[in-house]
Amino acid sequence: MFDYVHDNLHCDGVNLAEIANSAGTPCYVYSAQQILDAYRAYDAAFGDLPHTVCYAVKANSNLAVLALLAREGCGFDIVSGGELFRVMQAGGDPSRVVFSGVGKTRGEIEFALQSGIRAFNCESEGELAEIDRIAGEMGTIAKFSMRVNPDVDAVTHPYISTGLRDHKFGIDIATASAVYKRALSFKNLRASGVSCHIGSQILDYSSMLEAADKVLALIETLRSDGIQIDHADLGGGLGIAYKGADSAPGIPDYIANLRKRVEGRNLTVMIEPGRSIVGQAGVLLTRVLYTKRSPAKEFVIVDAAMNDLIRPTLYQAHHDIVPLTRTDAAAAVVDVVGPVCETGDFLARDRSVEGATPGALLALKSAGAYGFAQSSNYNSRPRVAEVLVEGSSWRVVRARETYADLIQGESI
Ligand code: LLP
């Protein structure tokens, strides 16, 4: 939890200024407790219904974060061979891994089969044929779900909505039954589930329930056609409250609604939450370098930039910005920008920020998901450090990159 104690922002038992001063800025800080609480909220809400929570690794793939979840028995949703490698390095159980994504390569499919993952979430018939071929060469059987596109509007930012007919994801749910029937002729494949994921940062989960109903109806049809289906993978997508004043759907409420639909069907439910497990558990710490006034605006220039947190630039996303030390100084309406040479390099626009004077430390909140994971070396900026807080202790779980790291693997 991120709360003020005597005007100093803390993450659980640790003063964040201590981390900023010692690990340097910019730096991401994650609360182990908050990650575990969110995972356990999902797990507990399912109760005795057979289920696997497959954390969506793309949201935050730091090894220490994955290891925390792996130790809880969490499963993982991966979208690349690199993510599978990370999961295994972190001690994750490959038999609790599902592999999503529209463009799996031969090398990735081989790696996943060797590792013994739970299922491929397939997104096209071409991919089914490729997995069948590779499994045949390897003398193994691949288990699959088709990812269906239920044509449900997730009502979120267009870049992170995935369940409409004109999106690249999944196959049209109306054609799915025929695809499963054709797949019966593949000797090295076995149908195991149906999967779906309609988008991310969904604040009204009724669309997710509508998609779940469509998936469950499809499963009934498939079963009546004699196709064995043992699980429904209902994807991720539950949103979080980015603005302090906003509210987000509760994990227990959403899962209670899913349970009602799945109970008595002899199905294992899988879900693939990312943001709702790690999003609120992380902040990005940054230091103010300069302030400057143009005729139209007041700018606060900080040491973090769009390459460290691209969400404001890419999705017009809002991250609350708060001072690490609260003072009586009046808040000013400013643009918070970074050192990158792009007009699009902003972390907040026309935002009332307190205490943003040169040298001051600020925290961008709700940055645990799709923060570091989407960071880059643009402008040859070394990627920032990541820190994990456990109770009243903390440690660096990814060192700040050095200049030598920047050119690693390059040659003249
Ligand atoms: N499963 C699949 C197949 C996905 O594509 C995603 C996210 C998830 C699960 C996890 O969704 P979540 O529970 O985190 O909403 N970079 C964007 C979000 C992209 C989401 C991509 N897919 C952002 O920063 O908002």
Account of the 3D structure:
Helices cover 29% and strands 26% of the residues. With 412 residues, the protein is an alpha/beta fold. The chain folds into 2 domains: 2-30 and 279-406, Lyase, Ornithine Decarboxylase, Chain A, domain 1 (Beta Barrel), CATH 2.40.37; 101-271, TIM Barrel, CATH 3.20.20. The strands form 3 sheets. Strands 4, 14, 15, 16, 17, 18, 19, 20 and 21 form a 9-stranded mixed beta sheet that branches. An 8-stranded parallel barrel has the order 5-6-7-8-9-11-12-13, surrounded by 5 helices. It has a 3-stranded antiparallel beta sheet with strand order 1-2-3. Strand 7, helix 5 and strand 8 (119-122) form a beta-alpha-beta unit. Helix 2 packs parallel to helix 9 and helix 7 (173-183) packs parallel to helix 8 (206-224). The chain starts with a strand and ends in a 6-residue tail after the last helix. The mean pLDDT is 96. Ligand LLP binds at residues 56, 59, 77, 100, 160, 197, 200-201, 235-238, 272-276, 311, 315, 369-370, 374.
Helix and strand arrangement:
Blueprint: E1 2-5, E2 8-11, E3 14-15, H1 16-23, E4 27-31, H2 32-46, E5 51-56, H3 63-71, E6 75-78, H4 81-89, E7 97-99, H5 106-115, E8 119-122, H6 125-138, E9 142-149, E10 171-172, H7 173-183, E11 189-195, H8 206-224, E12 231-233, H9 251-262, E13 268-271, H10 275-278, E14 282-293, E15 298-302, H11 311-315, E16 321-323, E17 332-337, E18 346-353, E19 361-364, E20 385-390, E21 393-398, H12 403-406
The structure holds ligand LLP.
